[in-house]
Inverse folding.
């Protein structure tokens, strides 16, 4: 295991999460319908990733970068997706989940290397819980193959991205938790001992 990506647990049963995603399929992209929400210019940030946000960032004033805001707002879709919240409560007992959402990536698509920018990210640890599809994830010079049911932490302050290597849509749940020495990635060796 490396310093940039740490597998916390695998083989988590995500079947109930998938059932809720199917039941509430209209939730995909629903955050775009919210009032008083400013989205990034689609001509500047082009991607084929579909998003279903449960807790999203907000801004205090026009022109502010959402990455420089501490605002976290539950979307109406939050109530529909109790199964993912149950898993997180079990794996991160007592921890508050901040911004979070499902991201889908079509077959053969990629998310290019990027860094999550802004002051918000300086105090958070970021995790993925893979829901469906198999994908390659890279951070810095480390790479892992991720199967459904895999929970991992990664250093989102370094360039990171993904490639869908499955013959199905990749869905992952991305979420943030405040930094803490008690967070699970600190209990896993980085192989450098």
């Amino acid at each position: 295991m490396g310093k940039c990506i740490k597998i916390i647990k695998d083989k988590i049963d995500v079947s109930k999460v998938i059932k809720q995603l199917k039941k509430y399929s209209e939730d995909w992209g629903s955050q775009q319908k919210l009032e008083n929400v400013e989205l990034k210019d689609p001509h500047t940030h082009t991607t084929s990733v579909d998003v279903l946000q449960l807790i999203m960032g907000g801004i205090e004033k026009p022109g502010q970068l959402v990455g420089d805001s501490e605002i976290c707002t539950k979307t109406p879709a939050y109530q529909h997706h109790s199964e993912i919240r149950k898993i997180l409560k079990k794996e991160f007992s007592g921890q508050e989940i901040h911004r979070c959402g499902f991201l889908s990536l079509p077959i053969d698509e990629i998310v290019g290397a990027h860094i999550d920018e802004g002051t918000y990210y300086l105090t958070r640890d970021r995790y993925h819980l893979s829901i469906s599809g198999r994908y390659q994830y890279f951070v810095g010079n480390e790479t892992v193959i991720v199967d459904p049911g895999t929970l991992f932490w990664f250093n989102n302050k370094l360039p990171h991205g993904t490639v869908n290597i499955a013959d199905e849509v990749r869905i992952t749940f991305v979420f943030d938790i405040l930094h803490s020495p008690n967070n699970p990635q600190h209990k896993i060796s980085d192989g450098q001992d």
Notes: Confidence is low (pLDDT under 50) at residues 35-46. The first helix runs from residue 15 to 23.
